[in-house]
Amino acid sequence: MLTVPVSDEQLAEDVAAFLAEGLTAGERVAYFDDDTAGLVLSRLADDGVDVTGPLRSGQFQLVPGDFTRAALHAPLDELTGVMEQNITSALDDGWAGLRFSGQMDHGLRRPGGQVLDEYDRRLDDAVRDHPLRALCVYDHLRYPDELIATMRSLHPAELTAAPLYDDSLLRVTEIGPARVRLAGEVDHANRPQVRRVLARLIDRVVRGDVGEGTLTADLSALRFVDVAGAVSLVHAADELPVSVRLRLVNLRPGVARLLERCGAGFASQLEMSIRERHALCPADALGLAADAAE
Known about the structure:
Blueprint: E1 2-3, H1 8-24, E2 28-32, H2 37-46, H3 52-57, E3 60-63, H4 65-73, H5 79-92, E4 98-102, H6 116-127, E5 132-137, H7 145-154, E6 165-166, E7 170-176, E8 179-186, H8 191-206, E9 214-225, H9 227-238, E10 245-251, H10 253-261, E11 270-274, H11 282-293
Parallel strand pairs: 1-5, 2-3, 2-4, 4-5, 8-9, 9-10, 10-11
Antiparallel strand pairs: 6-7, 7-8
Helix pairs in contact: 1-2, 5-6, 6-7, 8-9
């Protein structure tokens, strides 16, 4: 399976969802890091996925960047055997299968030129007829368009997404009827667009099309909002008809404090709920994984 993120927010969203699905299914899950593990671990925490237990049990494996880069430089003839060995190990340990993803752009710097297309062909050979699922990530920030087009032609399935808004700094997605998610940062550059997206959704709620009088915004992955953005959210709630509510859920404590300072407590149609998050940094995750391996 392939995903072609247009931003790091989408990369984290797609990969975290893919890995979480594997954990729920009882598969062994591995992420091959090359400077993006922090993004993925943070998004897993935002999504309410606690990976501490899976790291300790060996179900979730975070592969260090130096190992990832070494694997991309290893002879391609060894790939199929290595994957079969890892599948066998996962099954022998009692897991339902093996699932992995990772950041592979270091392969672009392999001596002798790009080999990622051949790498994917060998990977496809390894996956076929085995309980193994892979999510290949070829994002526009790290890969040339020509290579992305080639990779798309090699993969039978691609994750597709239609965000309400994505400017590489902030990603807004509709996650259900009258439910929206903001991930990233709100500042002067995207504040007007955010207000327009919310206004369209609020209009649907006001008309009674969705939501039963409430628009819910999940802000678990909203890392930052400037003062003007916070004021704009409060004003959006103040301008609602009395029968309509704007509910902000899973706020990070810092974002919640800023909204309170900007008058959220006086907006009768604004509801807020805070959720503490405990995201592991890559170093801590690698430490837990190393303890599991001993």
